[in-house]
Amino acid sequence: MIRLNLDRIFKIKGITKTNQYMMKLGNSVGYASQLVNDKSVSIRFDKLEMLCKAFNCTPNDLFDYTDDGKKPLPEDHALHSISRSDAIGEVNKLLNDLPMEKIEELYKILKGK
Fold first, then answer.
1. Which residues, in sequence order, are CB contacts of 64 under 8 Å at separation 6+?
2. Bridge partner residues of 63 (DSSP)
3. Which one of 12, 13, 75, 89 is least enclosed by Cβ atoms within 10 Å?
């Protein structure tokens, strides 16, 4: 099943007030709620483009494929390229478990210092 996975991108971008963020982008309260709560059954191309611009990403970054088990795809099928792991959750856990001095070291590495 292909689905719009905004929760993943919200975590990556550090967006906690998701409905408010989506409304700030120009979405109605109802549509923002549908998108945020994974209740949307379709998305127009102009809305998809708006999300890609807002998040600085491609459509592939917004979608997730999960095998529904009904008719498994071959391992080399292209849809598997948009299957996402919980890497964000894992990274957050790793960062939370690091001592402050290690976080400072990591920050310096990321900043190229």
1. 2, 3, 4, 5, 8, 82, 83, 84
2. 4
3. 75
